Amino acid sequence: MSSTQPRRRGGNRYRRPRKDPVRILAFEALRAVDERDAYANLVLPPLLRKAREKDPAHGGLDARDAALVTELVYGTLRRQGTYDAIIAECVDRPLREVDPPVLDVLSLGAHQLLGTRIPQHAAVSATVELARVVLGDGRAKFVNAVLRRITADDLDGWLDRIAPPYDKDPEEHLALRHAHPRWVVSALWDALGTGRGGITALLEADNERPEVTLVARPGRATTEELTTEDTAPGRWSPYAVRLAEGGEPGALDAVREGRAGVQDEGSQLVALALANAPLEGADARWLDSCAGPGGKAALLGALAAERGAALLASEKQPHRARLVARALEGNPGPWAVVAADGTRPAWAPGSFDRVLVDVPCTGLGALRRRPEARWRRRPEDVAGFAPLQRGLLRQALESARVGGVVAYVTCSPHLAETRAVVDDVLRGLEKEGTTAAEPVDARPLLPGVPELGEGPDIQLWPHLHGTDAMYLALLRRTA
């Protein structure tokens, strides 16, 4: 009998690997995150759209498949450090000597075995088939052997093996059990302090999939217009609507038309606090000095328009400035966007009544949305942002008129990016004796929001408020 199929020794016919579009797509997303330093929340949606447009007979995905891809990618990235520690116990070489594509396949398999309800045999079989497709038969055997070792225990059992007891080393214990780098655990614990829900609750919240929250831009859309059977009212912002899991923002006319948008409720709250801060005198000119990609600018622009005020949105990077302009398009009030460096203002000092400066930061407050960021960031990144954060806040204060209000905002709770920046800038200005400013208690500006701390600044938390960990300090220029 003749055949074009190759044969193995012993007469076994070679079987081609089965191509599983779900796991292949998940692998491609992980490789993009690793190779290009991309973010999964930017890489995955276009991959899913392209796959869902295909004929199912030729690798197209249905909604259930797309949900599984999303879980595999985000779950693997979220617990990457913990899975690495487990895999390291199951290989015969240092983990750094395992090729990155092989490690991505192993991590996908580890997540299926330890972090999902997929049966063990199915998880191993599917991952080995993936390895055959993307790595080749030789390395697939290595993947199979490692996964078999991982099946020796469940996640809790592995954590008991690799994590030190809490009383011996609490930070490392929490780091491995809740999949955060140790330095991040330490920084979050310092910022949270005692009480306020506890560090364990915060780390657990960081590992939950965040809700998608919409904002109805005032004067352009209403929350009633966004309300469907798949939505619920926001918790704190009067302009917020929460989507049910699996809800599609683009299915709503207001979102497609730019009258509403996707915006975390914490992001809405800090913009609202600035807009509602008491002000004496003129209230005609507002500035967003680090406006990209434009979510806060769009909300501020709509609020300014209701009061007859004009918004200037500034963004250093031209491509991000274009995103800001797109977000503001259709705003009923006067607005303008400039591509300018907030540390070298393109406007005269003392020009604005209200100023928002949402500074670049480590993003440790948005780990729910960008799970890979926790493994990508390094402690030295905090110091790297420090000069820019101080320079932007200083120029924001000089851009405000005497009596005007500045909102210093970061999406990081790290004390070195929040209170330390504000304190340093205020001390520096006091020594120079030129520009001067004083803190404004921001807490009364967010009525109904609990657990806002001792003030005058505000730190929001995922486990307490269901938002990103946004920080806000309000400052009034006094001289």
TrEMBL record:
InterPro entries tied to this protein: MeTrfase_RsmB-F_NOP2_cat, MeTrfase_RsmB-F_NOP2_dom, NusB-like_sf, NusB_RsmB_TIM44, RCMT, RsmB/NOL1/NOP2-like_CS, SAM-dependent_MTases_sf
Keyword Zinc belongs to the record: no
Active site (UniProt): C411
Superkingdom in the source lineage: Bacteria
Species of provenance: Streptomyces oryzae
Domain SAM-dependent MTase RsmB/NOP-type: 188-478
Name of this protein: rRNA cytosine-C5-methyltransferase
Binding annotation for S-adenosyl-L-methionine: C290, A291, G292, P293, G294, G295, K296, E315, D341, D358
Alphabetic keyword roster: Methyltransferase, RNA-binding, S-adenosyl-L-methionine, Transferase
Organism placement in taxonomy: Bacteria, Bacillati, Actinomycetota, Actinomycetes, Kitasatosporales
Assigned protein family: Belongs to the class I-like SAM-binding methyltransferase superfamily. RsmB/NOP family.
